[in-house]
Every structure is written in C-alpha cells, then in structure tokens.
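Check my protein:
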Amino acid sequence: MTAAQRRRAVDHLKDRRVSERRACRLTGFSRSAAWYPLKGRDDSALRSRLKTLAERYPRYGYPTLHSMLKTEGLVINPKRTYRIYREEGNRKINDALPSCVFLFQASPFQRQWSKKMSKVEGTVLTERQRYWLEQVRA
C-alpha cells in the first residue's frame, strides 16, 4: 500500500467520523505525515519539451535527452526524466540489426579446440558453448 493510498484511507475514515489517531493507527500511516500537505509538481513544461525532443531525435535515449533538458535548465534529476519519458510512452529506436547470418572463418586454434572438446566424454556444455562449437565445425 503506497503512502498516497494510506492518506486516502485516512481521509475516508475521517469522513466516516473516525478520529485521526485511530485512522492512522488502523492504516499504519504516520500522524505527522498526515498533517503535511501534498506537494504537487507541475511537469507540463518538462513533459511537452521532452515529447518534442523525443519526436525530433527518435534515436536518442533518455540520458541524452536528459542532458539536453539539463542544459536548458528544465530538469535536475535523471530519475524524474526517466519516469516522465516512460509515462509518455517514448522508447529509443534501436539501430536495426541486419537480417543476414554472420559466418566467420574459424582459426586453426579454434578448430583444434573444437575437436578436443568433441572427443571429451561426459562434458557438460552450456547452450552458448554448443552454439559456438557448431559454428566452428561448420
């Protein structure tokens, strides 16, 4: 249960004529925290600028966009930039990998190693090692 949910539960119980002390005790919310007003942040300027930058530079991730916003003086905390970046649904467009299969020429040492490994009985190989051996043998 988050602090905001606990605060709402305390307010609901207070509306039902339950004392604040008892409502805080029931919800596990601190009475001193119940007295502090919530600090709302206005992220509208930051959101709009981040959205325009993300549309203009689709290959940039949030760290690069954060540094751009920081030079403009709009943001200080990278975690806040990351949160807003994800809430807006932005994702970095990764460089597309080619769809071809990379074939490589195995060196004599690699061929010798693969022959030795294939002769060892009872050798337990990981999937990565098996894949590599198949590529070397080909």
Q: What stands out?
A: The helical segments are 3-15, 20-27, 31-35, 44-56, 62-72, 78-87, 108-119, 127-137. DSSP finds eight helices and no strands in the chain.
